């Protein structure tokens, strides 16, 4: 499983959504499954899957799947 | 002291305790170990942390850092996260925000620096610890946070407005986060000690001490072990249906 697949799976696991729902355009608070509570679970899942600990500012900025990938790249996670 | 807690209520659980070298902290570490917990003990002084005798060291991991150092706090949680992911310790289940300072200072002579220091140690640091701990706990949807507040914050005390305010802030956060984190299975409670025989209160002159004890229905100071027992109760699954609660351990103290 490459990192893109891991990212998608993390969203699926944390939010309880179908894989096809996880697109770059999916944004925080635009679906019922991605509310503030789920956001914390999502962060925990991403931290566990990618073995990182995110800064609070990055968590605040993680407003979409696309942003999640960009932020994780700051932590040397390669999505090439 | 006779324990009323059944053995092993914290088996397969990791707990982080700040202020672990103080009077209440040491008593709590011992009680958590006795209940089967793996304990990360946080304190500023390495020598003091390592010299503490808890009878066993198999389940103890010292973390030396200043709770007000944001980067150091993150590093501490990163260490816990790594040990959990490497299978060295069980998942983080408990956090006890026990580190604190008590400044006695009338309003007119309280500097802004002292006020900020009080708020940093007693409120901002516990808040940041709860941010990180909640994330680690939320993955398993299970956890328990206990904040050590004070009866002074509940009732006020002349000359202790900064301390009372800092602890009142933590009480407010406790009640709000209990509601916010309940959906992910994390309970948040607080213990409010009264006059306890610890290094924080040993500077009291006999006369001042007696005045305090006269305002305590039980007419004696509390023992750190009595506070530790209350924290343990709220920390453990024994209190599984209790959240957002502030438990006084004060001998019915009226400041």
TrEMBL record, chain A:
InterPro entries on file: ACP-like_sf
Taxonomy, superkingdom: Bacteria
Protein name, entry field: Acyl carrier protein
Species whose genome carries this gene: Marisediminitalea aggregata
UniProtKB/TrEMBL annotation, chain B:
Domain Ketoreductase residues, every copy: 13-194
InterPro entries for this protein: KR_dom, NAD(P)-bd_dom_sf, SDR_fam
Keyword Oxidoreductase included in the entry's annotation: yes
Pfam families noted in UniProt: adh_short_C2
Gene Ontology BP term (one): fatty acid biosynthetic process
GO molecular function, one term: quinone binding
Keyword line: Oxidoreductase
Family: Belongs to the short-chain dehydrogenases/reductases (SDR) family.
Protein name from the UniProt record: 3-oxoacyl-[acyl-carrier protein] reductase
Species, as recorded: Marisediminitalea aggregata
Lineage: Bacteria, Pseudomonadati, Pseudomonadota, Gammaproteobacteria, Alteromonadales
């Amino acid at each position: 499983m490459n990192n893109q697949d891991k990212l998608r799976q993390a969203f699926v696991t944390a939010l309880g959504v179908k894989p096809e729902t996880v697109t770059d355009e999916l944004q925080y608070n635009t679906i019922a499954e991605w509310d503030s509570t789920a956001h914390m679970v999502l962060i925990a899942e991403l931290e566990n899957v990618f073995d990182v600990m995110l800064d609070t500012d990055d968590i605040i900025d993680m407003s979409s799947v696309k942003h999640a990938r960009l932020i994780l790249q700051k932590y040397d996670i390669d999505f090439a | 002291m006779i324990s009323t807690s059944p053995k092993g209520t914290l088996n397969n659980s990791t707990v982080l305790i700040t202020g672990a070298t103080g009077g209440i902290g040491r008593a709590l570490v011992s009680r958590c170990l006795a209940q089967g917990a793996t304990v990360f003990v946080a304190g500023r002084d390495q020598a003091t942390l390592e010299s503490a005798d808890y009878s066993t060291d198999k389940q103890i991991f010292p973390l030396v850092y200043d709770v007000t150092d944001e980067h150091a706090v993150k590093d501490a949680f990163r260490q816990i996260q790594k040990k959990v992911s490497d299978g060295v310790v069980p998942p983080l289940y408990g956090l006890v925000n026990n580190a604190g300072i008590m400044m006695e200072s009338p309003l007119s002579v309280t500097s802004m620096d002292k006020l900020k220091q009080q708020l940093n140690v007693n409120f901002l640091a516990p808040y940041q610890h709860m941010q990180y701990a909640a994330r680690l706990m939320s993955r398993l949807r299970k956890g328990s946070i206990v904040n050590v507040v004070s009866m002074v914050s509940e009732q006020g005390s002349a000359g202790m407005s900064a301390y009372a305010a800092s602890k009142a802030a933590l009480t407010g956060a406790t009640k709000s986060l209990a509601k916010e984190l309940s959906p992910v299975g994390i309970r948040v409670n607080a213990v409010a000690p009264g006059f306890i025989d610890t290094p924080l209160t040993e500077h009291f002159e006999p006369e001042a001490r007696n005045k305090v004890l006269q305002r305590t229905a039980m007419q004696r100071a509390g023992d750190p072990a009595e506070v530790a027992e209350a924290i343990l109760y709220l920390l453990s699954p024994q209190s599984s249906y209790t959240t957002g609660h502030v438990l006084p351990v004060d001998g019915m103290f009226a400041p």
